[in-house]
């Protein structure tokens, strides 16, 4: 397969986007949800600064994760999520998500029996959507690190080959695909938070008798700000916060 180094000319640097990707639990719930935040690479430093500032004073250290939402940390988590909607550094950032009904997955039939291949197909769909919407961009794709036998470099090549087959005129739009440690990557923590709210809703944790009131309140706050009214319906393809339910074949 054709390969390309990670060099960029000046015009491509101006159009460079980072895409941060995370997923909800693949094993505990019926619906697997993947989420991504694409934003101009030139905005990343300012976005990281505003996110770090939003943590204070309650959470000066440690990783923000949906699973850690609590009463003591609630205000910091809410401020952190609100930066996505309010801060100028994130004005061009969007959140795109895929909802996958795992009860309909057939890895043996379609993915050579491999859950990892099936997961990479969903990651491919999400990254490709970002490339379709940002037609002049070039991309660095940063999935949250996970233990897998699938190489990020292989996914990068498959993404570029797929864009070529679709007639994309850009020369290898995906220039980098590398895992990132979410504990050291504020934007992956933001994806986790926005994603967690959606996964909490579609998996109907709102209805559990012992549901965390703080997670329920935070999920409702995020989904309200995102304009999500029906969790089982797709949103518009493009927008600040989009949801698509995958139709598996």
Biggest pleated sheet: 6 strands, mixed
Q: What's the shape?
A: globular
- Helix proportion: 25-40%
Low-pLDDT stretches:
1-5
Spatial strand arrangement across the major sheet: 5-4-1-2-3-6
Strand content: 15-25%
Q: Total number of β-strand segments?
A: 6
Q: Count the helices. How many?
A: 8
Give the CA-CA distance, first to last residue. Answer: 27 Å
Task: Please tell me the overall pLDDT.
Answer: 89
Order of helices and strands: HEEHHEHHEHEHHE
Determine the structural class based on helices, strands and strand pairing: alpha/beta
- Which quaternary structure do these chains form? single chain
Computed Rg: 18 Å
Descriptive overview:
Helix 3 (74-86) packs parallel to helix 8 (213-226). This protein has helices at residues 10-14, 44-54, 74-86, 107-110, 115-133, 152-165, 186-202, 213-226, and strands at 16-23, 31-40, 95-101, 138-143, 174-177, 241-245. The protein is globular and about 50 Å long. It is built from eight helices and six strands; from the N terminus they run αββααβααβαβααβ.
Features:
disordered N terminus; alpha/beta; six-stranded mixed β-sheet; 39% helix; 8 helices; 249 residues
